[in-house]
Design a protein that fits this description.
Layout: H1 5-13, H2 17-22, E1 27-30, E2 33-36, E3 48-51, E4 56-59, E5 65-66, H3 68-76, H4 80-91, H5 102-129, H6 135-143, H7 148-153, E6 157-159, H8 165-172, H9 177-182, E7 186-189, E8 193-196, E9 201-207, E10 213-220, E11 228-230, H10 246-249, E12 256-260, H11 263-271, E13 277-279, H12 287-294, E14 299-303, H13 308-323, E15 327-330, H14 339-356, E16 359-360, H15 361-370, H16 378-398, H17 403-413, H18 417-441, H19 454-469, H20 474-477, H21 490-503, H22 510-519, H23 525-531, H24 539-547, H25 554-561, H26 564-590, H27 595-617
Parallel strand pairs: 12-13, 12-14, 14-15
Antiparallel strand pairs: 1-2, 2-3, 3-4, 4-5, 6-9, 7-8, 9-10, 10-11, 15-16
């Protein structure tokens, strides 16, 4: 145990799960629960549920679930001790020094060391900017009209012209060559030894949600290639899970985000008061970053450069945003190239007006498509029509009702609506036919094999959830089943804690039991993931399992399955399944015993076998 169980429970109780999750995800109250779009997979219809009464969350789309610790671990990519520490700080709970096992100590120490190393590097760059050798870097930022306050807010710095300044500084702080290389701050050459990755560049520290420095971007001063250089991905820096400026933008309280291409665009916009601006991290915008944006806003305004490359990037980003269930709009910056240049010339009010007049993404796509054709030429217009049909087909595949899009295109470019609908339908038929032919040519993949113990573990999770949801059931079944009947490991440990609470007549707290298991020093990484599902498996899962019912049929069968008779039968089947597996384990474990000890084990197995036979004939009443 890293920390006393009582302390972990105190931290959990002082961090209401709804309050914590709503700081990351947009959730709305629906009845006694809260719902929203799941932050762990792309979806357009919210299947993510948070229960304040149970202090757990569950996504009915991807299956993610757990308590407040699980959420922070999954969202922030934290270990349990890191999640506990963050939540303790949030609640004002002081943690004692934890005792770690060797493996955990190494993992925590390595991540902490890398974060500390990045922080020291950022501090070094910050002071270099204000030293005599940073004069050219400071001039660059001042020429871009950045205030001292803005430079401090974003921690802007300078990497000296010398190629090993930072390495020497970090080594003087006690970091090894390997640690500096692993953080992406230096490279090693056989001939020249260690040299800094960043030199003669203005530096942009990249921060995570908690304002911790996780990487860097650097722009060269004067001539040099590459113009922009970014940190490689490391244990603490994952580009798909971060956006530049999001640590500030997520608290902007706007119902939209502004997505830029560069660091300077974000900084200039924040300085002007547009704190909802973010940028991708030196790479093309990704689906992971779109999912990240969806946690904070439903609408995204693209403020990309107005040149050809910017238009191409915007068209690509629109598709990614649409796939993530976000509404995209295009900010027009002409006659200027980027937001920074626009702001300097026309100011904040003009920029606000451009935001209000931002073009919807579909209109932008149509306009860009049409620019590639001479619509005065009949031949060229027919080619445009063919391209338009394909575009409308793609849109109809993404929206349930594509009619408004077809109507808009037909009105704008003077095509017949009915004829266009027929053409799009015909195109869709050809695509499906081609896809079918391709599938027939491809060898069928082997069906996914269910793990041998998966049905048993699912039944154990169902029973744990059932007892936590309906404690009165415990009195009906306690003479038939005990914690020792559950599989060894987290299932048995969870059963012990749950049964102890039920026996004492105390209201069971799934969230508290999960927290205690997460904190157990013997809990491995795979088990940490399994813990999140312990109390999130419903009776309907048993229905799927034994009756082969598809997800879409569950609601139709719910009323039938909610009858007492069906529930009693399901409960009986689940307990028999768990007891049968328990007996089988006992027989396997006892088969090698010799002497008097073996006879005792044999007698116990006989008793258990008789008890199971009686249970199979027994009706368990829920009256």
């Amino acid at each position: 145990m890293y920390y006393p169980e009582e302390l972990i429970e105190e931290v959990r109780q002082k961090n209401d799960i709804v309050d914590v999750i709503s700081g990351y995800v947009r959730i709305k109250q629906k009845g006694s629960n809260y719902v929203g779009l799941c932050p762990f997979h792309n979806e357009k219809t919210g299947s993510f549920m948070v229960s304040r009464s149970k202090q757990i969350y569950k996504c009915f789309g991807c299956g993610a679930g757990g308590n407040v610790f699980t959420f922070v671990m999954e969202y922030e990519n934290f270990t349990f001790p890191e999640a506990l520490k963050q939540l303790a700080e949030r609640a004002g709970v002081k943690l004692p020094e934890a005792e770690y096992d060797e493996n955990t100590r190494r993992q925590v120490s390595r991540r902490a060391k890398m974060l500390a190393l990045n922080k020291d590097a950022a501090t070094y760059f910050f002071y270099q900017l204000r030293a005599p050798q940073g004069e050219t870097g400071l001039k660059y930022f001042k020429d871009r009209q950045l205030s001292e306050e803005t430079m401090k807010k974003f921690g802007l710095g300078f990497a000296n012209v010398k190629s090993n300044d930072l390495t020497l500084y970090l080594k003087s702080k006690g970091y090894s060559d390997g640690e500096i290389r692993d953080a992406g701050l230096a490279t090693y050459h056989e001939k020249y030894g260690m040299s800094d990755k960043f030199w003669n560049r203005v530096m942009f520290p990249i921060q995570d949600m908690n304002h911790r420095v996780i990487g860097f971007g650097g722009r060269v001063i004067g001539e040099g290639e590459p113009k922009y250089l970014n940190s490689p991905e490391t244990e603490v820096f994952d580009k798909s899970r971060n956006l530049y400026g999001l640590n500030f933008a997520r608290t902007s309280r706007k119902n939209y985000m502004i997505l830029c291409e560069g660091y300077m665009d974000v900084i200039a916009m924040h300085q002007a008061g547009f704190t909802e601006a973010v940028a991708s991290l030196g790479t093309a915008f990704t689906s992971g970053q779109a999912s990240l944006l969806r946690r904070y806003a439903e609408n995204v305004i693209l403020a990309y450069d107005s040149d050809g490359a910017g238009v191409k990037a915007a068209l690509r980003a629109i598709g990614i945003l649409r796939d993530a269930g976000l509404t995209g709009k295009i900010l027009h910056l002409e006659p200027y190239k980027d937001p920074d240049e626009f702001m300097k010339n026309l100011g904040k009010e003009a920029f606000e007006e451009r935001i209000r007049d931002a073009e919807d993404s579909f209109s932008f796509e149509l306009r860009m498509l049409a620019e590639g054709y001479d619509l005065k030429s009949p031949e060229s217009k027919m080619k445009f029509r063919s391209a338009l049909i394909e575009k409308l087909y793609r849109v109809s595949d993404q929206f349930e009702d594509a009619k408004p899009f077809i109507e808009m295109a037909c009105e704008k470019y003077h095509f017949g609506y009915e004829e266009m609908c027929k053409s799009v339908t015909a195109f869709a038929g050809r695509q499906e036919l081609n896809a079918g032919l391709i599938r027939r040519r491809e060898p069928e993949s082997a069906p996914k094999q269910e793990k041998k113990d998966e049905p048993l573990l699912k039944n154990q999770k169902i029973l744990l959830t059932w007892l936590a949801d309906e404690p009165s059931v415990y009195g009906k079944i306690k003479k038939y089943i005990a914690p020792g009947d559950f599989s060894e490991g987290i299932y048995r440990k969870a059963a012990v804690k749950l049964f102890d609470a039920l026996e004492a007549g105390a209201p069971p707290s799934p969230s508290a039991i999960m927290a205690a298991l997460q904190a157990d020093s013997e809990t491995g990484e795979d088990e940490q993931k399994e813990i999140s599902a312990l109390f999130c498996t419903k009776i309907s899962d048993h229905l799927r399992q034994v009756m082969g019912i598809r997800d879409v049929d569950i609601e139709d069968k719910a009323a039938e399955f909610d009858t007492r008779g069906e529930k009693e039968k399901a409960l009986h089947d689940i307990i028999v399944s768990i007891k049968s597996a328990s007996l089988k384990r006992a027989m396997e474990n006892g088969s090698g015993d010799k002497g008097s000890g073996g006879k005792v084990a044999f007698d116990r197995i006989l008793e258990a076998k008789k008890a199971l036979q009686e249970l199979q004939k027994t009706h368990i009443s829920l009256n």
